[in-house]
Amino acid sequence: MAVASSEITTAGVAKKDIAAISWTGGKDCNLALLYAKRDPALDVRYLICFRPEENAFRAHPVPLMRAQADSIGLKLLFVHIPKDTDDYMQAYVDGIRKVRDEYGIKVIGTGDMDLVGTMERNWIERCCEQAGGGMRCYLPLWMMDRRECLSALLKEGFEIVFTCVKSPFFDESWINRILDEHAMAQMQGIADRGLKEGIEKPLDLGGERGEYHTMCTNGPFYKERVVLDVNCEPHRDDIKGGTNWKGNIHNADSVWTISLK
What we know:
Strand order of the largest sheet: 3-2-1-4-5
Oligomer: single chain
Number of strands: 11
Largest sheet: 5 strands, parallel
Distance between the termini: 35 Å
């Protein structure tokens, strides 16, 4: 999605807008960062993580995000969402206003590809509009074909590992596995099988419904590879209630030793 035209300086040169990329460390935000870096209208200076207060990110461990930021060479900002809030949008809006005023950020980019749940518009786009002050959202992957997106990641040289998967689509063998052409072919088979069997919500190849999560360990703008040493076997949290998912299979952040090499 195109960003509105930047301001023009008195010298007639387009002034780049300071941008931050909404960050979890996964595949989509990494690709969004790459596209934002290539956009001549943007000056990408920050990564920004909207983080629930006191909740651990098992699929996207904060120490791993910090290691990525160190390797990439961008400052990682955190917007903490209060655990007792009854207005999540206002919490996001307040956080966006704070980083806008403190860091001069005018654009927040995100790797979102589609609407989530019952939403009628992109969440960050709505929050930026409500924040005002010229804030806007950058959505380079919006409505992108899922397989095309995965292929672009591999073509650009990103190294991606699965950090959390959900059964019945996946089993524990996918944890810490590299996302490569072979994995893509297997995922396509899982999606096709779901369509054939008439599953209401078959596997989304991009994981847009949360079927799986990833982290990038290397890529075109990483100065050093993020090295993960796994200390124990994947474990599973069973899910109960009205869902097609039977369980989360993951490694919590405590089972990784993270380093840059």
